[in-house]
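Weekly structure sync, notes
Attendees: PL, DS, HV (note-taker this week)

Item 1: Pantothenate synthetase
DS walked through the input record. Source organism listed as Streptomyces bluensis. Sequence as pasted into the shared doc:
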Amino acid sequence: MTTALLRTAEALHARARVGRRAVVMTMGALHEGHATLIRTAREIVGRDGEVVVTVFVNPLQFGAGEDLDRYPRTLDADLKIAEQAGADAVFAPFADEVYPGGEPQVRISAGPMGERLEGASRPGHFDGVLTVVAKLLHLTRPDVALYGQKDAQQLALIRRMVRDLNFGVEIVGVPTIREEDGLALSSRNRYLSAVERRTALALSQALFAGRDRHAAQEALRARAREVPATRARAEALSAIGESRAAADAHAVAKAAPATTSVPADVVAAARIVLEDAARLKPPLEVDYLALVDPSDFTEISDGFTGEAVLAVAARVGTTRLIDNLPLTFGAAS
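Item 1 (cont.): predicted structure, written out as tokens:
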């Protein structure tokens, strides 16, 4: 198939529509993560539907001193990737098409959720994100829009905006795509030197350490509920055979069987990895590490049950990276 390059909403609206339209919003510099979004969009709308990829570097979401000017712009390569992944069209508008008359005076506020984590580190960032997403949803008129779960807070805010403001569009989150070494795919990875990349691996390694701690605790507590609160319980727990589980067996055996793992322990396991990386050359400079409720991105406390997100942001050299992993606390896990 040949993917059409469209520069105006008028050209996009002139296209005949038969099936459903899916939109994948990007800032360009496409990689396998974006390609996965496009392929997923094709699966959702089918052969008769239409997949549109937007490419627009949105100035509203970059703060002072951030990388707007050096953000990679690779439209020719983006077209090839979009075509190979199955896109029907790439909508790559110029700034005056999205913001006629200059930056908009009326913008969408991300509210309290937009002031936490990424929002606290980058004031106004999510206001700019939601404003451009709203604009692009109006300009592209999709039935469904797909976003990567790597930007978990962004995805949560878009879902909230669509629900709160009655946008008639389905929002689909697609799992994070990682490279073989675990690093989450990002357009900013290309900024990293070889030694910086080695340091950057600490982000995913920290998340995996937190996930493993969580899994070990859940396994321990599931076993604890199955045996009496006696010395036999400690022996049964130790029989699990995993070093972390065995180390905790006596403490868990003496305690009443809990229903969930302890969020603080999950964060602590991840933090150890980040602290080690802070001593590397170049060092990892952590912005935040938090275990949050994805409905509002407030930190969860002991006794929490349900879906959670372990999120991290850090800087290596001049490059800032984010990553996260979903975790489930309680019986559902």
